[in-house]
Design a protein that fits this description.
The protein has ten helices and 16 strands. By secondary structure, the chain is of the alpha/beta class. The structure holds adenosine-5'-triphosphate (ATP). Adenosine-5'-triphosphate binds next to helix 5 and helix 6. InterPro entries: ATPase_NBD, MreB, MreB_MamK-like. It is found in: Cytoplasm. Pfam families: MreB_Mbl (PF06723).
């Protein structure tokens, strides 16, 4: 019987699903819209994301995995089931194996519940795996050799930094400083400096369109609209790359410090390999302008952004499922 293996990147910001032989078949934001009065799920994914900050009182658009932890388990479960059911797993010839990458810091009870949700949705065997390992594999690193590889995965809720060798993590750190916090810093900067209230989506847009974290490396501006805190009326302002660099400086330095501390704890032979091979950046935060330049300057090692950094975990799940027997994956249950 032919069963297609399924890999899922259950991320704070986005859920990606990889199906063997087909590639990435689903890529949607991790957002669920709920009717507060009836607790009914109204929309999931992109449709729900369009509602963020724009819902009437009785509807809430929730990000159930906010801050790299499962903030609302029932909704996470509903979202996972919705996405798996969308693939019509039950229509597969035989039950597929499912490999799920979820936030690093979730509890063992949550791990078990995620596994059960995937099994109920049609998975025959469900495995969970650590995100930085899978991201490194998806970025094309051969982590199974006895040599050091370093990956910095900057997602929505967490930044995972790891040095890997012989298929496992040697030293690592997971911090709750990533894309969402950057958005928040931008939002607060605009509020302080211009007395203007903006939404999370506008802040993210500023980050993507004009931000840089490496001084004097980008010179762009963007016009944004928000609500004036004094008059209460809509107002338009122009924000520059230089201002956003200032807004993000402190947050980004926390990532730099965490990466330095991982390197300090790395055995010297592996550090030498990292100097030769460089550090690979994955996750959406790898696309933040200047991140590679800043890390290269601070860590004194070459830093490379992975090709398609936001797809690395999903692609990595596919490679891992193909090589399952070689890999000492963590199985639950
Ligand atoms: N071009 C860009 N520049 C800067 N940031 C970006 C860009 N594109 C996406 N991002 C940010 O990347 C983040 C999402 O990345 P990703 O999809 O890798 O996270 P995730 O895997 O869902 O999160 P986590 O790893 O924390 O579970 C968001 O904060 C988003 O704003």
């Amino acid at each position: 019987m032919f069963a297609r293996d399924i890999g899922i990147d259950l991320g704070t910001a986005n859920v990606l699903i990889h199906v063997k032989g087909k590639g990435i078949v689903l890529n949607e934001p991790s957002v669920v819209a709920i009717d507060k009065n009836t607790n009914r799920v109204l929309a999931v994914g992109e449709e729900a994301r369009r509602m963020v900050g724009r819902t009437p009182g009785n509807i809430v658009a929730i990000r159930p995995l906010k801050d790299g932890v499962i903030a609302d388990f029932d909704i996470t479960e509903a979202m996972l089931k919705y996405f798996i059911n969308k693939l019509d797993v039950k229509g597969f010839l035989s039950k597929p194996r499912i490999l799920i990458c979820c936030p690093t810091n979730i509890t063992s009870i949550e791990q078990k519940a995620i596994k059960e949700a995937a099994e109920k949705s049609g998975g025959k065997k469900v495995f969970l795996e650590e995100e930085p390992k899978v991201a490194a594999i998806g970025a094309g690193m051969d982590i199974f050799q006895p040599s050091g590889n370093m990956v910095v995965d900057i997602g929505g809720g967490t930044t995972d930094i790891a040095v890997l060798s012989m298929g496992d993590i040697v030293t690592s750190s997971s911090i709750k400083m990533a894309g969402d916090k950057f958005d928040n810093e931008i939002l607060h900067f605009i509020k302080r400096k211009y007395k203007l209230l903006i939404g999370e989506r506008t802040a993210e847009n500023i980050k993507i369109q004009v931000a840089t974290v490496f001084r004097d490396s980008r010179h762009e501006t963007i016009e944004i609209r928000g609500r004036d805190m004094v008059t209460g009326l809509p107002r338009t302002i122009t924000v520059s790359s230089e201002e956003v660099e200032e807004a993000l400086r402190e947050s980004v330095s926390i990532i730099v410090q965490a990466a330095k501390s991982v390197l300090e704890r790395t055995p010297p032979e592996l550090s030498a390999d990292i100097i030769d091979r460089g550090v690979i950046l994955t996750g959406g935060g790898a696309l933040l302008h200047g991140m590679d330049m800043l890390l290269a300057e601070e860590l004194k090692v070459p830093v490379l952004v992975a090709e398609e950094p936001m797809d690395c975990v999903a692609i990595g799940t596919g490679i891992m499922l193909d090589n399952m027997d070689k890999i000492s994956s963590r199985r639950f249950g």
